Backbone:
């Protein structure tokens, strides 16, 4: 899977913020292999934020996180379904604010 120079850095920056929020290692969020449920939730959340807050399409989100388009789409769907969980929703709202504030300019480069 070919990845542009800018997609991985955007994924890495979002992953760092999400990893800190979810208390998981950032290297696990960005890893190409399967991980524990907390890491998977963090990775899905990072993909969701890249798509929703930065407007990245599923193909670019997948590339940024070392996954394919369908995995990115499914991750976004699953996180959207879990937004009813108060703790997860609160964490995603804080992260969304940080992504818009800190990464909005970078997103234009990745698109």
Residues:
């Amino acid at each position: 899977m070919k990845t542009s120079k800018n997609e991985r850095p955007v994924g890495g920056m979002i992953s760092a913020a999400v990893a800190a929020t979810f208390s998981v290692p950032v290297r696990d969020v960005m890893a190409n292999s399967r991980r524990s449920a907390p890491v998977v939730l963090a990775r899905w959340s990072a993909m969701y934020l890249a798509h929703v807050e930065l407007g990245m399409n599923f193909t670019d989100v997948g590339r940024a996180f070392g996954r394919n388009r369908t995995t990115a789409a499914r991750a976004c769907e699953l996180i959207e379904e879990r937004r009813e969980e108060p703790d997860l929703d609160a964490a995603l709202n804080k992260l969304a604010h940080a992504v818009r504030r800190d990464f909005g300019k970078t997103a234009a480069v990745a698109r």
